[in-house]
Each structure stands twice: as structure tokens, then as C-alpha cells.
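Input/output pair, single chain:
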Amino acid sequence: MACVAEAIGLALPGTSAIPATFKEREKTAKLAGKSIMQLIKNGPKPRDIITRKSLENATRVVAASGGSTNAALHLPAIAHEAGIDFDLFDLMKVFKTTPYIASLKPSGKYVAKDLYDVGGVPVLMKALLDGGYLHKNCITVTGKTIAQNLKNFKFPKNQDVVQETKNPISKSSGVVVLKGSLASQGAVVKIAGMENLEFIGKARCFDCEEDAFKAVQKKKYKVGDVIVIRYEGPRGGPGMREMLSTTAAIYGQGMGDKVALITDGRFSGATRGFCVGHIGPEAAVGGPIALIKNGDKIHLDANKGKINLLVSKKELAKRKKKWRARKNYFQSGSLWRYTKNVGDAYKGAVTHPGAKTETHTFSEI
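Output:
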């Protein structure tokens, strides 16, 4: 998301990849403070910078770097805040047409500091710009366009952290959106570094992450299982927690390529293996993930962008009639209030109507 801040135009060029402990951070903080004062006075303002095209630029950088699947939440939410229609399926179109060019962990050889050492996020952006993948005229906080910011920046040749787009690590994005009978609102999987992009297995269902983690710890699952963690979506969690502990345990047991995991919750950028998140509609509203039974067959195909529950419509309709909403542990207070306001994951799990309904631009008052 630091890369996104720079790619979208909201962070000063070359600043987002500076390691936290480096002295350059102090210099950058002072420069940011001065820039903010100028921006308040003269602009551009955030909503001048956030446009459909700048959102597409940010999505390109996520895709090209095998970035976190969380971007599929954050970018639609940012768009919503600015009054722009840009959901998971809009991201999917960009993901499909973006080459994977940055060899970053957990799927590649390098870490974020290595990216900084070869020039930072401008290296990624320069490669994409030269390859014709960025909207070059998007305005940034410098008051200049992306093309102007990168005009004198030379792509470093003697490094293999970031490839040029004509010589990508792979021709397709490191992040894929799936859709099918199990997720009409879509789902997200990070495929960067994965060898097997198709999986058919039997469901092993859990209604919260804690139960799934305990089962994995005790190795109560089999090769070929699809571990299902549900009721962890925006409403069901509530709050859409990341399922990192369970995926890490699976990988630590050497089973990362022998089982799959699907959830209406989310993952961090460190997730490995065939792990599908953001499944919508979520279980809390009676989505198909709530109707899965142990032993049901599930078909995942990242090549074709499909996620299907291999159960007949007639059987699912029968199960839906018997389904009852599951209560979470938060039946009062702020988290209860959150569940009543939060929306679907594919639109960013937002909690208010957004800029489209605003009658005043408050920054101008």
C-alpha cells in the first residue's frame, strides 16, 4: 500500500519505500510537512488527484509487484470516498492485462529494502510507464504529472529486482480475481510464485478462524482438502480479519501446495499457497460459502478465474431454506453498530454512502 500511495499520486516521489529506520525518513517527513502546507494553499487536493485513471495506475503497481490482496479492499474504498465507481471487477480488468515484473517476497527473491536500494517505487513505475501501462498525465502531489516526475529517471539496468515489461517474470498479474457459483461478488487470490493454478478438493468447514487454526495445529485435515473459513467477512467477523495464522501453519507443515484455503475473510501480503479470500456474498448474509458442507467438492481455477461449488442448484436452494444467520460475539457497542453499516467486500467494505451523496465539498468551506 506504500507503493499504491506513490503510484496513485498521493505520496512524494521516491519516498514510500524508504525503510523505517533510515535517516532519510526524517528528511522526508519535513519535506512532506512543507508540501502539505503548499497543497492546502494552492492544491491540488486529494480529489483532484484521485481519478479513475490514477486508481488504474495504482492497481497496475499492485499487480506488477505481486502486492497484497488487501489492495482489492483499499482501492475500491478510496474510490468510494472520492465518488468514483471502481470495484473488484474493475480491478480484475487491470490485473488481467498487467505483467508481473517485481521479484519480491514471499513469491520472489527480494524484500522491500532491495527495491529501495535499486531506486524504490519509481523503478516499478518507470518500467510500467515505458511499457505503456500507466496513464502518464495523472497529476500528483508535486503538481506535476507522473510522466513529468519520471522524465529524468533512468531505469537501472544492472539489477534483477524489477524487470522491464518486455521481459517480465510472467505475462500475467501476481493477483487474480475469481468468480463463480461460490462467489458471484468475486474473490481474490495471490498467484505470484504459485506453480499449480488449479485445485479440486473436498471441503473441510470451519465457522471461525480459531477453530480452523486448532484443527490445522492438530493436523486434522487431509491432502486434497479445501479448508473453508467462513463468518469472517466484513459483517461476520465483524471486521474481516486476516487469516494469516492458519495459512502460515499450513505452510509450516509443508502442506502449502497440497491443500487450498478459501474464506470470506482476508489475507496479508505474506500469504503463500492457494489461498482465496474476500469471497462474496459472505456467510453472514447467507452467501453460498455459508451453505457448504464437509465433503462438498470445490473447484478453483486461477487460469480461468473461476471458483465453483460443485453442488446442484436444487440442493443449495434446499440448504438455503434451512440456513439461519449466525450471531457473532458482538451484539452491542461499536462493533455491533459497525455490522449494521458495513457493506460488501467487493466494493471496499465501506461504512457510509461516499462522495456521490455529498452536498458540500467540506475542504472548500
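The mean pLDDT is 93. The beta strands are 175-180, 183-190, 198-206, 225-229, 260-263, 275-277, 297-301, 306-309.
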